């Protein structure tokens, strides 16, 4: 009898720098195919025994000696836990692999939330509007919706404490909490003088990772599916939305994984098996000895319609597997910018006390067997977004005036150009022409036309830019993806 | 019978950022007063036994488990040593103290070289002149001098290999080596067509840390002593030079510790005992429980002449003890900029295999008992150097032209101002006025007057700036230090 065992395999990406100075850190993870551990043919008990045996045989006297020295002689107090976590993190750091890391009990919690694409809270999208924490919309069937919260409700207190002075993240952190626990918030609603109190019982809130659209153009219908993360339920949701689109009849499909940091390996594999026939591998992987394994589907035929995958600098890991394998195995177009370049697979090893270590165990390879690690997937059609997509936010200490030089002026220039104002330069020199464009913006927005960059003007420029990005009207990459199918 | 034991105590400063974007990392260290371990009253054997006992009693099963997991499952090969060093470094990192760190066998070697203010090599100061490694001067009595190397000799080969393409550090690294070993270099000398070969036996080369000068002004004589590091022999050398100055008769003394990163605690203590009488503490320290100890000299009287200490942002640790204690205990003036701010004392603990851990064990306090940690010593007379002292080097990718904006233009502007050229701005905007100043510089240096910033012009601007700094003609801090005594 073969013992089946699920092993959690993770793909992880850290500290990604985008153009324009925006940086962010994300985590991602993959389940491995269940067939994986079957091939080793050992039981879970045998595995545990082996581990214990190994633990007893190895001694780390030098580490123990250093541990004791620090505990006895260091100037300040230090806990054993702190040193032990430090030692484990230090061993993982010594590998020089940013994807191998220690996850303590708290980070494991958010790690699991990301894997499950869920969190514990009240289920309302909130935003900062004119300095006030405001409900954008309660999620469907969420505690927030059931309690009666409505769009545009202003959150004035949380647990009796004013939200004044909190930033959005601080407010969200206070609203969130364990499933089953209660939170009291008071909101101000238009047409109501008094604050309205709500007592809401927090629950587990699922996050959507798959969004579908049908694009009609030149008498053709294009399916469009955006995937924000490869989480536990993502493959099911993807196949659901794909079926719905196919039922309507589509002449092509665009899969958008821009900004998608990756996720569970099993999930992207399940998706690839829907597109790549059994006569060729849909992906491969390689262990530390260079031994390769090729993965095949049971699929008979390719889809009858052309495929395009949208990627950018923020597409990593599972997103990259999807893009390069569809490109190599079924000739999909890949539109956008060269992707992040993470070609390794991690597993999480529980340490028995709620913490885990995440460890790189495999290289994944494309359908044809190449690694994109630290290289990225090159698009077949290279398209950048307009410059303002990559601009950093404007951070002002003082009002900025003509004939000065600064990066903040540069960001403003790029954004004003994005909003359609004419400038002679965008290198950070605050020229006459720049002042005129700024005055024109101020006039259009009914602000005092100073031609100087003050906080109010900067905030409004950024609000307009965010609106413009959200409207999608300048999404050149998506336009080219549509053109790649409708010729 | 009391057993005497020397314990190596170190003050360490890492990653110091100066104004103008210049950053550097230095190490420093201190011996503690020998009286320190006597108070514990235990023998070295007892100490070792205690350590061993402790080692046996503590287990780190979670660390061992992580160690085994990494060794069995990590994608790439990894040595036990690497993981053990990683674990120790990780424990020290977890303290959040930049001065506690692991020193492996190699870093211990350069650490000891710094403590001893010596290195193993041939003893020649070298510089890069027109892209060629060139002997500036052989040190007195060094192997380089004995072998016959002379100033301006161009080093063409080292061990038969051309120096072309090497940077200065690479060349120096190849010339250096263990005491007793041989190195063959070939040099080109003016008035000689052929290369001249030299076979030089490397030796231990002591580094000078103390420099003396006698400044005559307004019929007064001022002693001036510069200290570059508090190394093993520094206190002796300092007292030697001080005696020589006092023998000539001085009306005041300037001690210059600008850019001095610190060193051995015992060394600065020995120096303080020469100036601060026995009726007041010359410094204090404090352990983790807040227990303080005050240190006293046997000195009867203060010096009959006034003292001034020169400090800057690069003066740290032992330099700061010297400055603040002379200020508080004998009313010395402190001239310059607020110092780095390192108020802790480290010890190195040998791990038995040539490596050590460096651990923060004490806070040192000023004569009056205040800590300057993360604050620095404030000067009594605040003086900045001219802006060009703090400028970053110009790094060009392309020739820079008028009506552009960049940091490189800013650095150039600051340097041209320093050289006496008139500009309308130094904010990085390449104005007409900037171009004119650049043309004037090019004319003065007999370069083509393009008014553009090319590599040749940039190199020459920097050469002139370095010459100007070395000449000391704009050393405002030193001028004010002299004025602080001669009123």
TrEMBL record, chains A, B:
SUPFAM superfamilies, A to Z: ClpP/crotonase, PDZ domain-like, PGBD-like
Classification via InterPro entries: ClpP/crotonase-like_dom_sf, CtpA/B_N, PDZ, PDZ_6, PDZ_sf, Peptidase_S41A, Peptidoglycan-bd-like, PGBD-like_sf
GO MF entries: endopeptidase activity; serine-type peptidase activity
Domain (PDZ): residue spans on this chain: 104-176
One annotated GO biological process: signal transduction
SMART domains: PDZ, TSPc
Domain of life (superkingdom): Bacteria
Pfam families in the record: CtpB_N-like, PDZ_6, Peptidase_S41, PG_binding_1
Cellular component GO terms held in the UniProt record: outer membrane-bounded periplasmic space
Alphabetic keyword roster: Hydrolase, Protease, Serine protease
Family of this protein: Belongs to the peptidase S41A family.
The protein's name in its UniProt record: Peptidase S41
